[in-house]
Design brief:
alpha+beta, two-stranded antiparallel ribbon, single chain
């Protein structure tokens, strides 16, 4: 007799199936993903059919962010990195304080 399981006898949701895994406390049962796109638009995805649950998830995420990030840390405007141009840091001096050999005109 083979040790293979007859797929017609049990389903994975049947606790009698040897492949059945008991629910775990950290199993994901609902999710909402919020994305900010480069053009400034925002999209959401997830189990949003249950509107009260989706809104509850967003409120919980908002509360978690408020607890983890202090309010005084980000008082400045946040600018996306694609909108920032950076040049190498080169120390400069006023033209009058440079020796003629350092000006590049000799």
């Amino acid at each position: 007799m083979s040790n293979d399981i007859d797929p017609g006898v049990y389903t994975l949701s049947d606790p009698r199936d040897p492949r059945f895994v008991l629910p775990q406390p950290l199993d994901t049962i609902a999710f909402v993903t919020v994305r900010l796109h480069a053009n400034g638009s925002i999209s959401t995805q997830g189990t949003i059919v249950d509107k009260p649950m989706a809104l509850h998830l967003l409120e919980q995420a908002r509360d978690a962010i408020k607890r983890q990030v202090p309010d005084d840390k980000y008082k400045e405007i946040v600018v996306p990195n694609r909108d920032v141009d950076m040049a190498p840091m080169i120390p400069t001096r006023d033209l009058g304080s440079m020796l003629p050999g350092e000006r590049g005109d000799s």
